[in-house]
Amino acid sequence: QVQLVESGGGSVQAGGSLKLSCVVSRYTYCSYDMRWYRQAPGDEREFVSRIFINGSTTYADSVKGRFTISQDKAKNTVYLQMNSLKPEDTAMYYCKSDPCMLWGQGTQVTVSS
Q1: For residue 76, how many C-alpha atoms fall within 13 Å in the half-sphere facing its CB?
Q2: Which of 62, 59, 97 is nearest to 80 (CA)?
Q3: Would strands 67-72 and 77-82 be described as parallel, antiparallel, or unpaired?
Q4: Is residue 76 within 8 Å of 95, Cβ to Cβ?
Q5: What is the pLDDT of residues 14-51, one digit of tens each?
Q6: What is the rounded CA–CA span in Å between residue 82 and residue 18?
Q7: Planar angle of CA 73, 61, 54, nearest 5 degrees
Q8: Is the distance from CB of 58 to CB of 39 less than 8 angstroms?
Q9: Cross-strand pairs, 96
């Protein structure tokens, strides 16, 4: 069974950077369409970014120009590089396989002013 495990979250001051990782236990068609979502307490889970098997990417307007999604197929890993972080970026971040509708457990990102 394919599993997703996120890491790389932590606490950072506004303007700082973090790089999140999502390791996929086995590289299958589950990896063809990978996404990052985030959810703050009391809010709905919102889309952050997407990367497709051909390398095409999509970003939410709120993170465009600051976040970069990428993948390393040899390491079965999807990344989210987050720069110029803002307090409103504070949330639990989850990776997701859309083809398999499979979620990771999440990693917490906290940005202080």
Answers
A1: 13
A2: 59
A3: antiparallel
A4: no
A5: 999 999 999 998 878 899 999 999 999 999 999 999 99
A6: 5
A7: 25
A8: no
A9: 35, 103
Q: State residue 83's pLDDT score.
A: 98
CA 17 to chain centre: 14
Amino acid at 88: E
Amino acid at 3: Q
Which residues are 94's β-sheet partners? 37
For residue 76, give the amino acid letter. N
Find all residues with CB under 8 Å of 33, minimum gap 6, and list them. Answer: 50, 51, 52, 53, 97, 98, 99
Q: Tokens 């970003």 correspond to what residue?
A: 59
Closest CA to 93 of 3, 1, 2, 5: 5
Query: d(Cα 105, Cα 82) in Å, to the nearest integer?
Result: 19
Q: Which two tokens stand for residue 58?
A: 């999509």
